[in-house]
Design brief:
Elements (H helix, E strand, L loop, with lengths): L1 H16 L17 E6 L6 H8 L3 H7 L13 E5 L36 H9 L1 H7 L7 E10 L2 E6 L4 E6 L4 E6 L25 H9 L3 H5 L7 E10 L2 E6 L3 E6 L4 E4 L1
Antiparallel strand pairs: 1-2, 3-4, 3-7, 4-5, 5-6, 7-8, 8-9, 9-10
């Protein structure tokens, strides 16, 4: 009888001690984790740092490897990394393709031009023969101007604040028009309070709004605005038979002297 009691006590003692010896159990022992990668612990490693490196939570990494104390890992220990392996380094974004002027005299379409289009205007001009033929050569170098923009249901408007010129683009007809910004703070209203746009749409204000309200049929051609007018980075270049305007959101607009335009994003 004493011998049986002794054996029972011995078994209970082993079962009590056993969990302490499995703090660093072998990875994936239960078969519940799919190991897509393995990591060998180095001196100075922390479980949270390893988890962050592989994009998994510390708790998931701890459970998958049956680690009772997250602060107790040792050099040389092999850890199962569940899910995907370490993320690949981000692909370096390549700059936009730029087609420079020809290196040798007599080569390419810019031979006869004393000023060469560059950057976004250069890309459009060099890649589109029809644009080159209709616009001709640049007359001035590309220049930045202070601008505000506003997108409409059926068009787009750029206000050149530097020159007080407003450019209106009608998307239905691919026509454009230029107007002088004649809005005066001292005598002109900001908008017409009697006009109530639908929910989610806006009535244009200031110089753009004055043209929208007073020019023949502009409000019907453009429709309501999608947002209030806002500042935008913009550049312009004059050509023999038109000009190019670039905005940060709209891309390149090619304005021909026959009042038509093309947009390149």
């Amino acid at each position: 009888m004493k011998r049986a009691v002794f054996l029972i006590l011995a078994v209970l003692l082993v079962l009590t001690i056993l969990p302490l010896t499995t703090t660093h159990a072998s990875p994936n022992a239960s078969g519940k984790c799919t190991c897509k990668a393995y990591y060998k612990v180095k001196k100075g490693d922390y479980l949270s740092l390893i988890a962050a490196k592989y994009g998994v939570s510390t708790k998931t990494l701890q459970n998958c490897n049956h680690i009772k104390n997250r602060n107790k890992i040792y050099p040389g220990q092999k850890l199962c990394i569940p899910g995907t392996a370490a993320p690949k380094p981000p692909v370096k974004k390549q700059p936009p393709t730029y087609f420079p002027p020809p290196a040798k005299p007599g080569d390419g379409p810019a031979t006869q031009c004393s000023i060469k289009p560059i950057l976004g205007f250069g890309n459009v001009w060099y890649q589109n023969k029809a644009v080159r033929d209709k616009l001709g050569c640049p007359k001035k170098i590309e220049g930045k101007f202070k601008a505000e923009e506003q997108q409409f249901h059926s068009g787009y408007v750029i206000n050149n604040r530097s020159k007080k010129k407003i450019y209106v683009f009608f998307s239905a007809t691919k026509k454009w028009a230029k107007h002088t910004d004649k809005w005066k703070k001292s005598k002109d209203p900001i908008n017409n309070p009697a006009l109530k746009p639908p929910v989610g749409w806006y009535q244009p204000e200031y110089g753009i709004g004055k043209i929208w309200r007073n020019e023949d049929n502009y409000s019907q051609k453009l429709g309501w605005a999608r947002y209030q007018q806002r500042p935008v980075t913009a550049t312009m270049q004059q050509y023999e038979n038109g000009l190019m305007i670039w905005t940060q959101t709209g891309g390149v607009f090619v304005l021909y002297d026959n009042d038509t335009y093309q947009q390149f994003k």
